[in-house]
Amino acid sequence: MYKNECKWCKEIIIVDLQINFASHVSSCVMNPTLEKRKKETSLRLKGINKVERITIEKICLRCGDKFEITARESEIKRGKVKKYCSDKCARSRKHTKETKERISNGVKNSEKFLTNNKEAVNRRCLDWSNKTGNKIGEASYKFTCLYCGKEDNDKKWNKNRKYHKECWNKISGGIRKGSSRGKCGWYKGYWCDSSYELAYLIFNIDNNIKIERNRDGFEYFYNNEKHLFYPDFIVNGEYVEIKNYRSDITDSKLKYFPHKIDIIYKDTIKPYIEYVKEKYGKDFIKLYEK
Fold it and tell me: pLDDT, tens digit, for every residue of 130-159?
């Protein structure tokens, strides 16, 4: 803690650091030079009173070449100017023999060097085989595939492996629940990714309209890349997709879609939302099952 009396307002100032006390003194309301400094600062910021800069010649501390700098007089007095002619000179270092040997030994014993050096890799493999009793080249980790249930060895010693490559290709991709930004949840056995989907689903269920979740993906191309499009629902045998707004991706999906599909945007979803609000209240999202 720092405690002192301000020479302008005569108040006892208690601060953590002395620099904070100096800041109070310079900006004190009773300071007679405060208004003058404010006007000078304002004129300088507006470009009226520019601070003069001086061009001087200096000698590089590394290579000894001469170079010119342009700086304010205050910066030159405080030594807050360039001391080297270039970044190359500023970043270069002169090491002693001991420092060079220490750096060399550190690099040779680093993990990156050992993995790129064949002799070091063979030495590490021999050490591993002596500890574990396995032959060089044998996998050190066994895993059980969560899809097919078969045991196998991972050649890369990956302890987090859970699937065969072929099994992972069978189950990866598709619809991911909760991947959207909307308020999602379950309602009477149906998964909804947004409040729009929930309102549309409730309307169809209440009016005994046949509705089901779509599980099939359809290929489409966007930016010369192949993707899969999963429409939201199938209502009376026709596909329905609910979107907040139209986009280029949506147009690409419709371009390659082989069946008839009804797109419901933000404007056309309003009747369904009004229906649900009148019957279940504005906070109809609470209808999601816990």
Answer: 555 555 444 456 788 877 888 887 766 566
Q: Is 199 exposed, middle or buried (0-12, 13-18, 19+ CB in 10 A)?
A: buried
Q: With respect to residue 92, please indicate whether it lies within any of the assigned structural domains.
A: no
| Whole-number pLDDT of residue 139 | 43
Residue 176 placed within a domain = no
Report CA-CA distances (Å) from 79 to 73, 74, 76, 83: 10, 9, 5, 9
The radius of gyration of the chain's CA atoms, rounded to the nearest angstrom, is 36
Q: Please give the full DSSP string across 236-289, using - where no structure is assigned.
A: TTEEEEE-SS--HHHHHHHHH--S-EEEE-TTTTHHHHHHHHHHH-S-GGGGSB
- The residues, ordered by sequence, that sit 6+ positions from 101 with a Cβ below 8 Å of its Cβ are none
Report angle CA 135, 140, 144 to the nearest 5 degrees: 135
Domain that holds residue 163: 141-171
Helices (H) and strands (E) in the chain, counts: 11, 14
Give dist(CA 22, CA 16) in Å, integer.
Answer: 12
10 Å Cβ neighbour count for 185?
A: 19
Classify residue 110: in a domain, yes or no.
yes
**pLDDT value of position 130:** 56
Report yes or no on 99 lying in a domain.
no
Residue type at 191 in one-letter notation: W
Residues 195 and 152 placed together within one structural domain of the fold? no
Contact 220, 227 (CB under 8 A): yes
pLDDT tens, position by position, 13-31: 999 889 889 999 999 989 9
Please give the tally of structural domains in the chain: 5
Specify the higher pLDDT residue, 213 or 148. 213
Contacts of 57 (CB under 8 A, 6+ apart): 66, 67, 68
